[in-house]
Amino acid sequence: MLVTLVLLAALASTVYLFARGVEAALDARRSRGPDAGGWLLRSAAAFTGAAAAGCYAWGLLGAAAAALDTVDTGGGPAPLRVCPTVTAGSLADHGVEYLPLRYVCETEDGTTYVTDDVPGYVTPVALSFAAASVVLAFASRRTGGTREAHGSRDLRDSRDLRDLWADVDSSHGPGDAGPTPPQPPPTGPRSP
User: Fold this and answer.
1) Please, what's the largest Cα pairwise distance for the chain?
2) What's the Cα-to-Cα distance from 72 to each of 77, 103, 150, 168, 180, rounded to whole Å?
3) What is the pTM of this model?
């Protein structure tokens, strides 16, 4: 049951971080000047975080399959399919270890061995992506790729809207009043 919950959390994290990466990439595209670098770093941090969560989820799929295989027949001969080198009488314990991610079988005499259900590259690759994500996130904070450093998106969008209307007004000529620009949103605190 725990394997399934961790797997769902890893998959949800992958989707969420990927969406945040896309959002930051779009903010970088809309940004002007030196601010774009911070947004690109923030986007890269989110994408590498999504890669770390996705890689860990990939390993959890193998661990979940092994765990489901052991539960499949109510604990009878199923652990022997997951732990084929252990005889039924000598199997003491088996289960998932989450860091490093692997499926482990333990015999009565205390000997443990790791099955091939979780690929060996999963933990090092996931940790590498996670470390890169943390470094990129700190770098994006230092370069100013955050909403807190440059105001909220609503205020930036209202400034962009005013610039657009200024271009529209200048195209009408001196005698034509033209359309009136919309008012920017209030800058005070928002009510819930």
Assistant:
1) 97
2) 9, 16, 55, 68, 69
3) 0.65
